[in-house]
UniProtKB/TrEMBL annotation:
Domain of life of the source: Bacteria
Stretches that traverse the bilayer: 20-43, 55-75, 87-109, 115-132, 144-166, 172-191, 212-232, 238-257, 278-304, 310-333, 345-363, 369-387, 408-430, 450-473
Keyword annotations: Cell membrane, Membrane, Transmembrane, Transmembrane helix, Transport
Gene3D superfamilies with a match to the protein in the record: MFS general substrate transporter like domains (1.20.1250.20), Multidrug resistance protein D (1.20.1720.10)
Cell compartments where the protein resides: Cell membrane
Organism: Natronospira proteinivora
Topological relation to the membrane, as annotated: Multi-pass membrane protein
One Pfam family cited in the UniProt record for this chain: MFS_1
Descriptive protein name: EmrB/QacA subfamily drug resistance transporter
Major facilitator superfamily (MFS) profile domain mapped to chain residues: 20-478
Length: 485
């Protein structure tokens, strides 16, 4: 190969990488926007469709259940099927679900549409991580992950604001029609520009090699776990609606572990779960996401609306600075993890998340501006967690298992979101019923906000567990690797 050919090949590879990043970043933005803007429409949907307060939560729960389960399955599918084909089919399913939601005449059809939406949207995070792992060499993935992750922040920031404006002007149905329009544009861009893995780069497997039994076990375990932790808030820990699904989750998890260990064609290779960095990254993703989403994005709107009387739009504006911080700092954090390794960066940023939660616990009765400042510290810290942690997990993934590895990692990440919201909601309800002063000696304000102060501390405990997981991360940066080469 001549020098010109090599230069052209490198240029083509960079062009493929840029196209991939743009498309995946847009896809992640659409999926996050779809969820964050729906939350502010729930009160109007409840009135419009005549839904009870106990049932309306299924708009969120049904979506989260299918989404969490689907990430692992889509990840495995991309070890056998074209990335671009999988992505386009998933977008089509997502679009059909959005149309069904927009036209829903009753609540049952709306929930069905949300399930269909999640069935397609679940492909996006798994494909984003897996495709970056396949198409970018180690040492360049951190910046790529950071670019994709940054769209999470802008989607989370824009969602409540866009949702509030659209609902006030045209009704909640237009939220789903807007999502449908964005998906059509995205599908056209993906069809024209999205790079695809060469067949020689994909696993030479057949359906028999898929490990269907393992896929069913891990799906049942994840779905039952999320259903169980959701039941803690709705029915209490002693209810069969809570411990029943949790028991099924444990038994299905044990069945999955046995399948991985003894099956000749496992759903995931056993070596993946013997890799300390990969397992630690999954645990860190679970608890860090639970802390940030539960103690931040879920709890603070409740605090702003219930204690300060803000509107949904006002609560969204309190969240906006932290979301923009994620958008701005995620690419930088990814580049730093490429250069210096992940562990020190992860630990430093988790300490920032922990400091933000302790501050919010001490200032739970403060003004919205002060609360926004505490959440901003959390957002900056969380920006330094997501892309470096995904980068660390990717070091355990060869190209032939990039799909299933990324799917399992994302499964833990989104289970953390469901776990955080459910446990925070249940603990907040418990503390409101118990009343009394706060546990944090730094909190000296009224008892009215004391339950929120204590709930921020619960999220801080989750952050502490994530910090312990970070100790097991082993991902040297280029500076250290080059010394041994």
């Amino acid at each position: 190969m001549t020098g010109d050919d090599q230069t052209q090949g490198a240029g083509a590879s960079r062009a493929r990488g840029k196209a991939l990043l743009v498309i995946m970043a847009l896809a992640v933005f659409v999926s996050v926007l779809n969820n964050s803007m729906i939350n502010v429409a729930i009160p109007e949907i409840r009135v419009d469709l005549g839904v009870s307060a106990s049932a309306i939560g299924w708009i969120i729960t049904a979506y989260a259940l299918v989404f969490a389960v689907g990430t692992a399955l889509y990840g495995r599918i991309t070890d056998f099927v074209s990335l671009r084909l999988t992505f386009l089919v998933a977008l089509a399913v997502f679009a059909c679900g959005s149309l069904l939601c927009a036209l829903a005449p009753n609540f049952g059809v709306l929930v069905s549409g949300r399930v269909l939406q999640a069935s397609g949207a679940a492909a996006i995070p798994a494909l984003a991580l897996g495709s970056v792992t396949r198409l970018f060499p180690a040492g360049q993935r951190g910046q790529a992950f950071g670019t994709v992750v940054s769209s999470v922040g802008i989607g989370a920031a824009a969602g409540p604001i866009i949702g509030g404006v659209v609902v006030s002007l045209g009704g909640w149905q237009w939220l789903f029609l807007g999502t449908l329009g964005l998906l059509v544009i995205l599908a056209g861009a993906a069809y024209r520009h999205m790079p695809d893995t060469d067949p020689s780069e994909r696993a030479k497997g057949t359906l028999r090699d898929f490990g269907l039994a393992g896929g069913l076990f891990i799906s049942l375990s994840a779905g039952s776990f999320l259903l169980g932790v959701t039941g803690i808030e709705q029915s209490g820990l002693a209810s069969p609606k809570t411990w029943g699904p949790l028991l099924i989750a444990v038994l299905s998890g044990l069945a999955f572990a046995r399948h991985v260990r003894y099956s000749p064609r496992p759903f995931a290779p056993p070596a993946l779960f013997r890799n300390r960095t990969f397992v630690a990254a999954c645990v860190l993703a679970l608890f860090a996401q639970a802390a940030f989403l539960g103690g931040g994005l879920f709890l603070i709107p409740l605090l702003m609306i219930e204690q300060h009387g803000l509107t949904a739009l006002g609560a969204g504006l309190v969240l906006a600075p932290s979301a923009f911080a994620i958008f701005l700092f995620s690419p930088l954090a990814g580049r730093l993890s490429d250069r210096f390794g992940a562990r020190r960066l992860l630990m430093s940023c988790l300490v920032a998340v922990l400091a933000g939660l302790v501050f919010l616990s001490a200032q739970a009765d403060a003004s919205p501006v002060v609360i926004a400042a505490g959440l901003l510290v959390m957002g900056i810290g969380f920006a330094g967690v997501m892309s470096p942690n995904a980068n660390a997990a990717s070091t355990a993934l060869s190209k032939d298992i990039a799909g299933i590895g990324s799917g399992i990692y994302q499964l833990f990440f989104f289970l953390g979101a469901g776990m955080g919201a459910a446990t925070v909601g249940a603990f907040l309800a418990f503390r409101k019923a118990a009343a009394g002063s706060g546990l944090n000696p730094l909190y000296t304000a009224s008892e009215a906000a004391a339950p929120y102060s204590d709930t921020f501390l619960l999220a801080a405990v989750s952050t502490g567990i994530a910090l312990l997981a970070a100790l097991a991360i082993r991902m040297p940066g280029r500076r250290y690797r080059s010394a041994g080469q």
